[in-house]
Every structure is written in C-alpha cells, then in structure tokens.
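Subject: Interface between my chains keeps coming out wrong

I've been trying for a while to get a sensible model of this assembly. When I model each chain on its own everything looks fine, but I need the whole thing in one frame so I can look at the contacts. Pasting all components below, labels as-is. Any help appreciated, I'm running out of ideas.
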Amino acid sequence: MSKIDEIKAGVAAGKTKVVPGLVQEALNEGLQATAILEAMVEAMGVVGDKFSSGEIFVPEMLVAGKAMQKGVEVLKPVLASAGSVSLGKCIIGTVAGDLHDIGKNLVALMIGSAGFDVIDLGVDVPKEKFIETIKANPDVKVVACSALLTTTMPAMKETVEAIKSSGLIGFKVLVGGAPITPEFASSIGADAYARDAGGAAVKAKELV
Amino acid sequence: MLTKRQNLLETIRGGNPDRFVNQWEAFGLVSGDPIAAKSPRPLKGQEIVNSWGVTIRFPENTPGPFPVHDYEHKVIKDITKWKETVKAPSLDAPTEAWDAIKAQAAAVDRNEKFLAMTIAPGIFEQVHYLMGMDDTLLNFYEEPEAMHELIDFITDWKIEYSKLLVKHIKPEVIIHHDDWGSQINSFLSPEMFAEFIVPAFKKLYGFYKANGVQLIVHHSDSYGANLVPYMIEMGIDIWQGAMTANNIPKLIKKYGGQISFMGDINNGVVDVSDWTPELIAREVERACRSCGKLYFIPNTTMGGPMSTYPGVYEAVSAEIDRMNKILF
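Reply #2:
Try treating it as a single job with all components included. I did that and got this:
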C-alpha cells in the first residue's frame, strides 16, 4: 500500500493517533502537501457517502473527521508556505431558538473536510449575527443554516430572508435539518438544500 | 367491552382487542416524586441547572428544554477525569415527601389503567447531557473504558432511584425516555450499541421486571429499526415514538409478539403550526390501516400525551376513534 493510500485508509478508519505520523512520513518522503490534503479530502468524501447510505454512523464520521484534522495540523505549516488551497469560507450556524448542534457540527466537519474554512457560529444564532459575520467576512462563499425543529423553521425563514434582503452578495445560502425539505428551502429563497452532512459538503462545493 | 388496560394487553399479546389503544389512554400517569423534583423542568424561556449540574434551557418556540453544551457549560470537559466533576443527585428524601405522588397513585383506577411513571432522561441521554453529543460519540471510540465506567455509574444510580420508586409508588408501567437516533439512522452502530448501551438497560429493565413492573415502554422518537432485536433483549414491551421511517408495518410483521410499536404518526408531520383536521385524518388512517390491530398502538411520536400545537393530540385521538368504528 502506498503512503497516500495508508493515509486515506487511516482517515477513513478514524486512526487519530496514526494519521499525523503517516502524514509526516509522507512529507519526509517528498510527497506534496497539497496531494496529501487532497487524499484526505477524498477519504472524507467516501466517509460522507457511507454515512449518507447508512453504512457508517455518527461516531465513525466524527472520528474520521478528527483523524483528518490531526493530519491537517501536520500539513498546515507546509501549506501556509505554499499558499492557501482553501475553497473559501463557510459560515455555519443553527438558527435562533434552536439548540441542536450535532447535525450542524457534522455538516461543519464535512464542509471543513471538503476544503472550506469554516466559521462556526454555534447554536441559537440570531439572524443579525449571521449578517454581522458575513459583513466581517466579505469573501465568504457559503452561508449554511440549520434547523432541527418544526417550530424553528420560521426562524430559518426569517434568517434566509434577512440575509437575502441585506444587500450583501457574493455567497450562496445552503439550508438543512430534519424538518427541512427541498420545497421549503426553495420557498424561503435558499440557494440550495442538503439532506445530510455528506450531501452538504457536495452541495457546498457545487455552489462555489 | 374491554377496559383500556385489558385492551392494551390484548393488543400487545396478540389476543382480541376490541378497538385500537388510543394513544396514552391506558396509562394512568403520575409524576412529581421528590427525587425528580430536585431537577425541575424549566418553563418556556427559563434556564435551570439540574441536580446533575447540567444546564438546561427552554427557548421560546421550541417543543421542550434542551441541554446547553458550550465549553463553559459542559459538566465533563475531560472524560478521563469524569469522577472529579460528576456528582450524582442525592437520593435522600423524607418519607412524607413521597405522600403527594402516593396520593396520585392511589387515585388511579387500576381496573381501567396501568399505574405508570415517566422517567427522563435515559442513560444515553444522561451521558450526552453531561458532555455534549460530539464528545459522547467520539469518546465511545477514544475512551471506551471511561465511558463504560460512566454508564455503569449512571445505571447504578438509576437502579437506586428505581428502588425508591418501587418502594413508595409500585408502578406497573415504566415509561423511560432515551433517544437513540436521528430521523434517518441510529446514532450508534448496532455493534457499538450492543457493547455500551444494551447491558445497562438489561440491568435497569431487568430490575424493574423483577420488582413488580409489568410493562416497559421505551420512548425513542427516532430511527431505530436496526436496534429492535436489542430492544427485545433489554425487555422493552412497547417501543413508543416509533417513527414512520422505521417502516412499522414491516417491523410488526417481523417482531410482533416479541415487542409492540406505539407511534407511526410523526409529530414532524402532524404537530405543525398549520395543521388541519384533514391532514391528521389522513395520517391516522394511513397508520391504522397499514399497521393493523395487533402489536400496534397508534400515537404521535412525542413522548407523552401532549402536542406542541394546541388541539393536535386531541384531533389525533378523535381520528383514532373514527378508525375504530371503521376497522373494528
């Protein structure tokens, strides 16, 4: 197995203690940091697909994400000197009144693994906070909003409407969460809908 | 005509029910024991710190309270040091503190209903209340020994609490809440669930069954079809909150007789701000016709006889009555 394949397998299996060492060995062998990063992104894509199909579960996804993060920490100094390979910024948060975080965290994990710089606003995020963060990050490419309750769907609607009518441009709005449907996403003016975390990463890449 | 209690037993034992069990009608619910009172449920707009030290917030416009898990609020910040920060609530309470709930229990017509108690949160929920969901799920992989220890600790505390319930109230039915999944899958793989969660519940539910509790009703309003064999192993009699995505008719066909299913009317569908009687009629009729008369109790998936939007629970009950006239 090549070193790159070992890294991919390590990420997919959530080997948090092994991946950093493998990444360092790969760098020592002269492999390009960008190629190593791409391999890890690819591995996380497979993880996302397996999650979407029900083959793996939330812990497997989280531990794979953590393994990748550990690998990226080794790569960061090299990547910084070689220039950024980021797909852009993604602002994410659960809308006002909603404290659910696991789905939002998984989406943040997958979008981060796909190559975005994620700005996670947390849960119970007022629409004003989304807008304020977009203003502070004019290069943002994707704004992702999550709602897990039927009762907070109106808050998602208000958030998307406020973002869209703010006059701020240059980004797309992605929405998701248990009660959210593609029809609802469309009705409130969102640019895209994702059913789950793996799908959100795919959709975010399509949006930029 | 069978009493509500008899009708439930006929339904879950594959006998001859004379109507559907209408949602929670067969359970005489009592609440407010002195141990539970140490962790009061916050009212809408309130935030409390419960007796485990968990901060619980009930935002406006949400169906219920929820634990707060930013770093400052986590009780367990490092699972390997959980013993330093987790303090189980005291189980001390003067005998007379049990009088109010004993009076409630005495008022339940046992011919008509089972004397029932609801207990929440469950074991898995208690773990993630203490440290947040992400840390919980990662720690199953990264610190399994500490997680086993913590689960054992919580389970043992629950059994000590259960001894008091059995002593003072003698419940016939325990309704225990523990959500085990999202809408599309279980949180844990069946293998991980079997390792960490099943032994704890076998112990807890085994205790109840050995101490006079006739039925275990377990609430999990999530996907859990892949966990049903374990539910049976644990001693669950009725899985309440069973969502439509689980394909309840298929589960009844496969497991009916070993376990019964209560739900198939998703709150996410019917308990909405713009609900209509027509919507509820359609959902109740679908559930009743597709699931049939045995091993199934038509019910919304919320964990008690209530709804977020006024009138929904009552409208569902009325439609079940209508289906009774058509199908029985």
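Reply #3:
Confirming on my end. The longest strand of chain B covers residues 114-119.
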